[in-house]
Write a structure and sequence with these properties.
- The protein has 344 residues and is α/β, with parallel strands linked by helices.
- Helices cover 44% and strands 16% of the residues.
- Strands 2-8-7-6-5-3-4 form a seven-stranded mixed sheet, with helices on both faces. The protein has a three-stranded antiparallel sheet with strand order 9-12-11, with helices on one face. A two-stranded parallel ribbon has the order 1-10.
- Helix 7 links the parallel strand 5 (130-136) and strand 6.
- Helix 1 crosses helix 11 (235-247).
- The longest helix is centred in the last third of the chain and has 20 residues, at 324-343.
- It starts with a strand and ends with a helix.
- The relative contact order is 0.17.
- The structure holds pyridoxal-5'-phosphate (PLP).
- The site of pyridoxal-5'-phosphate has 12 residues, from helix 3.
Length: 344
């Protein structure tokens, strides 16, 4: 049987989740009449400490709607160089909203306050106006890194002093919440808008949500439709998201244990490939070097799917559909292949 560690998006809806979807009460959500969508939006916004929520088809759409609420065309949002909004949303913020960006770099995807202070543009007729700062928690491409709460608090005061807004890309905020034992609304209240995904570790087939103030969400609702994201009986999907929020948040701790097992198993046979202590959530980044692509291919032949996250770097992600037995089996296969290739 294949063990798919390419991403936590590969999960399939469970039988109980499908039953919840089949039983969902629905209506036309473009008219605001889908009761299941309404309940989900209210509930998740509340969990995040915000007034209102908007259910969206993807996290990318939730991010576009959140960032555009703060940044007018031609102005800029500042973020880390490996942020999903600048690397993986195919330029949507620029193409659809005229948003420009400047970035800082941090090896763990964290906030570099020294650089950030210098990035904030002073009001001037020459400079692009800095309007907002975006932060990702957990940070995906840095390897599921949890942003320290003190950093997020410091970011909030910096933004307040500079008159800037904060958008939190919380695609995996659930993982940060479980790993760091920080309440979701503590994270949520430190940002002006927050996006979360239901279709990653939580295991829903489709869906994300943008939370924020009521007026921002009302405008986001208009823009969602303008971008082609208005949907009708979306309650069948909201029911899956609701089920995921009820049943699949606390279990993320299991994914974190499994990720640590993979890191420890590889670290035990290969020096300098991964520091298990740096694996905080469900993403393991293995710095294999030159032969990384060979390892990915050989793992595939043995039924373990992993991805290349950059030159020489393998990424393995644990999730709902990977048991601890499977994580151990995959860890052994990866450890064997990596130690074999490094020994050559
Ligand atoms: C997956 C992800 C998103 C949203 O991705 P979609 O595929 O558009 O749902 C946003 N931010 C981060 C950090 C992600 O990992």
């Amino acid at each position: 049987m294949v063990i798919d560690l390419r991403s936590d998006t590969v999960t399939r809806p469970t039988p109980d989740m499908l039953a919840a979807m089949a039983a969902a009460d629905t209506g036309d959500d473009v008219y605001g009449e889908d009761p299941t969508v309404r309940v989900l939006q209210e509930r998740v916004a509340g969990l995040l400490g915000h007034e209102a929520g908007l259910f969206t088809v993807t996290g990318s759409m939730a991010n576009v709607l959140g960032v555009r609420a703060h940044v007018r065309p031609g102005a800029e949002v500042l973020c880390e160089a490996q942020a999903h909004i600048v690397r993986a949303e195919l330029g949507a913020h620029a193409v659809t909203q005229g948003v420009t960006t400047r970035t800082w770099s941090h090896p763990q995807g964290r906030i570099d306050f020294d650089v950030l202070h210098r990035l904030v543009a002073p009001p001037s007729p020459y400079f692009v106006a800095t309007a907002a700062i975006e932060v990702e928690n957990t940070h995906n491409f840095a390897g599921g890194v949890v942003q320290p709460l003190q950093d997020l608090q410091k970011l909030r005061s910096l933004a307040d002093r500079a008159g800037l807004r904060v958008h939190l890309d919380g695609a995996r905020l659930w993982n940060a919440h479980v790993a760091a034992a920080v309440p979701l609304d503590t994270y949520g209240r430190l940002a002006d808008t927050v996006s979360v995904c239901f279709s990653k570790g939580l295991g829903a087939p489709v869906g994300s949500l943008l939370a924020g103030p009521s007026d921002v969400i009302a405008e986001a609702r208009e823009w969602r439709r303008r971008l082609g994201g208005g949907w009708r009986q979306a309650g069948v999907l909201a029911a899956a998201a609701q089920y995921a929020v009820d049943k699949h948040v606390e279990r993320l701790a299991d994914d974190h244990v499994n990720a640590r097992i993979i890191a420890e198993t590889v670290a035990a046979v290969a020096d300098g490939v991964v520091d298990p202590a740096a694996v905080q959530t469900n993403i393991v980044v293995l710095d294999v070097g030159e032969r990384a692509a060979d390892v990915v291919g050989a793992a595939h032949d043995q039924g373990v799917l992993v991805g290349l996250a950059g030159p020489g770097v393998i990424r393995a992600v644990t999730h709902l559909d990977v048991s601890s037995t499977q994580a151990r089996a995959a860890a052994d296969i990866l450890a064997d292949l990596i130690s074999g290739h490094l020994a050559r």
